[in-house]
Amino acid sequence: MAGRKQFDTDTALDQAMRVFWQRGYADASLDALGSATGLGRGSLYGAFGNKDALFRQCLDRYASLYGARYEQALAAHPDDPVRAIEDFFEVVLDRIADPSVPTGCLIAQSAAQALTLKEENSARVRALLDAQHQRVRAALAGSSADARTLDELASFVVAVNQSLAVLSRAGTPDAELRSIARIACAKVADTLDRPASENTGRRRSTPEAD
């Protein structure tokens, strides 16, 4: 339409996503978002709604860009869950090491600020973490371990993944991050190699099971 500035929605979302990723929700001002996207406040509102709506769309954009890579890695070895987890961490570490994107993870960054987010945004972050847990849990399903062990391992893998993102923002060297991932993979392999009865016995010996 004549007189209306045209822009690519995905490009604008990517630019806004980087602002939220670098600064976090609270410090991503409308001026910073406008400067990154090249859009005035009115155009931002017209295209994406308010800041909260834009934030949710950026979360979904991030999940679609990176979630597909994680899912592909986790699904590549249906008969070898340890290899699947190794490939998953390799994708995560490659993203962390990529100098073309901000450090850390938008979801981890947002989860750390969950208490300051509006309920709908906090729920969206939680849903994305749950989706990651489900993908990891599905990758472990080929194991003979019992369901509770696999649920716990999936939670462990997601926790390590989020920790890697936080550590990377603090400047932890790549070699140290990769060492953490290797230890996590070894833990997964060790747990899956144990007889189911041994895993059950370990849980019963913990204070929570008493």
From TrEMBL:
InterPro entries: DNA-bd_HTH_TetR-type_CS (IPR023772), Homeodomain-like_sf (IPR009057), HTH_TetR (IPR001647), Tet_transcr_reg_TetR-rel_C_sf (IPR036271)
Source organism of the structure: Streptomyces cacaoi
Keyword DNA-binding: yes
Protein name as annotated: TetR family transcriptional regulator
Domain HTH tetR-type: 6-66
GO MF term list: DNA binding
PANTHER family tied to this protein: HTH-TYPE TRANSCRIPTIONAL REGULATOR YJDC, TRANSCRIPTIONAL REGULATORY PROTEIN
Domain of life, per lineage: Bacteria
Keyword annotations from UniProtKB, A to Z: DNA-binding, Transcription, Transcription regulation
DNA-binding region, residues: 29-48
